Amino acid sequence: MGRYKDRRSPKVLARDFRYTVEMAVPDGGLGRTLDRMYEFHSLREITPYSGDDRHVDGRNIITWLFADPAIALEFGAEFNGTMLVPAKLSHLNTKTSCQS
Q1: Separation of alpha carbons 26 and 59, rounded Å
Q2: Which of the residues 13, 30, 81, 89 could staple to 21 if both were Cys, CB 3.0 to 4.6 A apart?
Q3: What is the mean pLDDT for each group of 10 consecutive residues in the chain (100 residues)?
Q4: What is the full DSSP assignment across 31-70?
Q5: Hey, where are the domains in the chain?
Q6: Cα separation of 71 and 26, whole Å?
Q7: Distances in whole angstroms, Cα of residue 16 to Cα of each of 4, 24, 36, 49
Q8: Are the beta carbons of 94 and 26 closer than 8 angstroms?
Q9: pLDDT recorded at residue 46
Q10: Can you give the C-alpha Rg of the chain in angstroms?
Q11: Given this model, what pLDDT does residue 85 score?
């Protein structure tokens, strides 16, 4: 048994949640937007999973993982994120803008 009971390994997350939405965290943090993000998941009865956060050009980048590409696109559009397309789906285009 792994160290953390009921925690999915990164390998399992990558297999089950192939669609990633990433977004830059504003300077003041996410604040109530984070509450809205969790509400988005709750309303669709899906468990929120976040991936590894990273830093780019002094900005924090947060990632959210989804099993359904339509929900990932909807989440990205609502919260100004970018959906990363799995390599197997498109070898030419690695990002899909969720912005209108």
Answers
A1: 8
A2: 81
A3: 55 69 91 95 91 85 90 94 67 43
A4: THHHHHHHHHHHHTT---EE---EEETTEEEEEEEES-HH
A5: 10-97
A6: 23
A7: 18, 24, 24, 11
A8: no
A9: 92
A10: 14
A11: 73
In DSSP terms, 62 is beta-bridged to 23
Strand partners, 50: 64
pLDDT at 53: 81
Task: Supply angle C-alpha 80, 95, 59, rounded to 5.
Answer: 55
Quick one: which H or E segment has residue 83? strand 82-84
Per-residue burial over 58-75, b if 16 or more Cβ lie within 10 Å, else e, is: eeebbbbbbeeeebbbbb
Question: pTM for the whole thing?
Answer: 0.72
CATH 3.90.1530 matches 10-97: no
Structure tokens at 33: 């937007």
Rounded-to-integer distance, Cα 76 and Cα 98, Å: 5
